[in-house]
Each structure stands twice: as structure tokens, then as C-alpha cells.
Amino acid sequence: MSPHDVLVIVPAHNEVESLPATLAAIRRAAPAVDVLVVDDGSKDGTSEVARTHGVPVLSHAVNLGVGGALQSGFRYAVERGYAIGVQLDADGQHDPADLGALLAPLREGRCDVCIGSRYVARSGYRAPLARRLGMLLFSGVVRLALGRRISDTTSGYRAYSLAVMRVCEHDFPKDFPDAPLLISLARRGFRLQEVPVTMRERAAGQSFYTLGKKLYYPYKNLLASLMALLRRPA
Questions:
Q1: What secondary structure letter does DSSP report for 92?
Q2: Lateral strand order in the sheet of 34-40
Q3: pLDDT tens track for 200-218
Q4: How many CB atoms lie within 10 A of CB 33?
Q5: What does UniProt give as the signal peptide span (predicted)?
């Protein structure tokens, strides 16, 4: 597998402040991998910043949410035959130095989805209380559904095989691709694995998760997790 079989997909919404440092960090850590920015309806010149750094951009006319942005990225990757797609946030929270650890299990055929976890090993990252409670809740939901523990169901730092991306380009949660997605993929027979990664605080800008979305998140995820359990695997 050559380095150019890997596409790093960076969903971005109004990330003009943090995107330059994120793209530079990817180049330093993995200069040979390809990068795609999906500008999810930004109003602040995010697309122009990405192009200035020599990165191709898919631009949404309106904001679809992180799930919609990733689905566009998966479609781009499948159409161009990439073997692996990596989901990496634009806000600087994910350290591109962990890309090698995230890719290794997929390159070695040990899994189909590799999840970068803050909790497999002690990283020093401490999420806000509300988020920690949500993580505990959805880790419990995934354990009940799959009979195994996933320590970081809300991690947005993941690598996917081509087979998984072929599914996700057609069937992917539009807003919160967390616990329901993991349940759905596992029930389709895809193998999940976690590796430890370093997670940092957002470098600049504002989170995609506004107050309204934070309040909506647990209800939507619980309902979507139930639907993923009831749905017959394709």
C-alpha cells in the first residue's frame, strides 16, 4: 500500500483561524498522504485558506453538519480509489503525529475501522464534565449492543477501510456519527479497533457543537443507537 492510498479528510466549518496550523501539522507528520478539506458552508474564507496551502476543497453551499461533510469526503475517496480514509478535525484537537498508529491496524488487515481513543492510555486530556458523562453513557450503550467495550465512542479521529467508506458514502449519520455508526458498522461485520492517541484543546474558533446541538445530542444518539440495533444489517 503506497502513502497515496491514504486520504486525510478534514471537515471544516468556519475554521480559518485553526486550519493553517492543522494542515501544516499534517504535512510535517505525514508528507506523502493526500489531504482533502470539506468546507461545510463556511462564511469566513476557510476554502481560500485551504487552497492557499495547496489542498483540494469540496465546498458545501450550506452547512450540513459534520456527518454530511464526512460523507462528501468518503464519496470523493471512493471515486478516486483510496484504500484508507482518515477523519481528522480542523480545529487542532487531533495530533497528526498519531496518523501512523491509526493507520497501522488497517494496513496490517487487523481491523476495518480504527478509532483514536483518548482513554486506551492516559493522555492527560480531560473533557468537560457534560461530555465525560455523555461518553460514559454511550460507551455503555455500545457495550450493551455489541457485548464489548469501546472506550471512546465520540472520538472524531478515525481511519476507515475502502469497504467501510463504500458503505458510508451512501449510509452515514448526517449530524452525530458516533455510537450509532459504530453499532451499525459492527453489526454489518466490520471489525473495530482502538489505538491510543493524544487529544488537545481546540486551538481557535468555535466548536461545531453549539448549545442547542449539545442539548439535542443525547436524545438523537440514543434514538439513533436504538434504530441501529433494530435495523436489519445490509
A1: S
A2: 57-60, 34-40, 6-12, 84-87, 158-161, 113-117, 192-196
A3: 866 565 555 555 566 666 6
A4: 21
A5: none
